[in-house]
């Protein structure tokens, strides 16, 4: 974190962001570790099936664990999930047999602690609107850096043998669960308030703006997944693909870091929303004729990824009442994982016929995401913004 970010964010917020980075690294390691370990032990088809179970279970369990944490307490929930997550991820590299590998991978995904969603809810609880945007910009930038760091850790842990990647992921997830429970303990609401909060979340329905933004997150991450599939198919070289995607992630990191230094940059954030749509359309035009231009457009478009992702997260906090923010961020996380998984499957089937169609599909998903965000923004302020301001004045 640079000095400007440190000046704008309190210590609690910086600690939350730091732990969130390690969680992002761990969850980015998970899919690659499962694929590498189970492909070598069993087969690619079994590894893919296990990863599907991991992804779906992880996505659908996030809102549930948010509710459990509100009722039972954050530290106890994270301790339990961290223990199960550690044991199951470590066990993936040890068990023999296809059925055992798929079942254990599904358990590993289902036990992923809801660190990202809970971190966002805690940040919205302790920060005012302007500092919250800076925090979400920094979070999006750190998420981009995780995609660069995770493969490196997997590569290093592979030196320890077949079980190295999954055990390394297990250790990191266990440590993150303990660390986040420690960081969040001073911010977490009391047990009585937790119980009342969870009951209100269960009884109340989320507003249409929140649901629209969850849909926007689903389509946005689906777009990113399509772009990754198209890049893998187009570059057709492992080293080249890794370099291009790493450069894309690095550009996203720079974009998020730059915006975290700015104040009142909402108009600029909204101006960046059409960039992914335009980039996908341009790349669709040059999928076969000009690899250099294809790669250049992809890398440059990364500058808009983190700021627009942060804008989406900030909008959820703005339009969602405070008592529903944990639930909303849980479903936003679930939607992003499900959207990415579904889009990867669709793009994989389309890519064998036409890469241009994959990128045009990505442009369509990005357009739907933009429409949802803009419609929510310009239809009036949400209840969450006023409540967030009230919470900020109490700090």
UniProtKB/TrEMBL annotation:
<dbReference type="InterPro" id="IPR036259">
    <property type="entry name" value="MFS_trans_sf"/>
</dbReference>
<protein>
    <recommendedName>
        <fullName>MFS transporter</fullName>
    </recommendedName>
</protein>
<feature type="transmembrane region" description="Helical">
    <location>
        <begin position="12"/>
        <end position="36"/>
    </location>
</feature>
<keyword id="KW-0812">Transmembrane</keyword>
<feature type="transmembrane region" description="Helical">
    <location>
        <begin position="329"/>
        <end position="351"/>
    </location>
</feature>
<feature type="transmembrane region" description="Helical">
    <location>
        <begin position="42"/>
        <end position="66"/>
    </location>
</feature>
<keyword id="KW-1133">Transmembrane helix</keyword>
<feature type="transmembrane region" description="Helical">
    <location>
        <begin position="293"/>
        <end position="317"/>
    </location>
</feature>
<feature type="transmembrane region" description="Helical">
    <location>
        <begin position="208"/>
        <end position="233"/>
    </location>
</feature>
<feature type="transmembrane region" description="Helical">
    <location>
        <begin position="357"/>
        <end position="376"/>
    </location>
</feature>
<feature type="transmembrane region" description="Helical">
    <location>
        <begin position="165"/>
        <end position="187"/>
    </location>
</feature>
<feature type="transmembrane region" description="Helical">
    <location>
        <begin position="239"/>
        <end position="258"/>
    </location>
</feature>
<feature type="transmembrane region" description="Helical">
    <location>
        <begin position="140"/>
        <end position="159"/>
    </location>
</feature>
<keyword id="KW-0614">Plasmid</keyword>
<keyword id="KW-0472">Membrane</keyword>
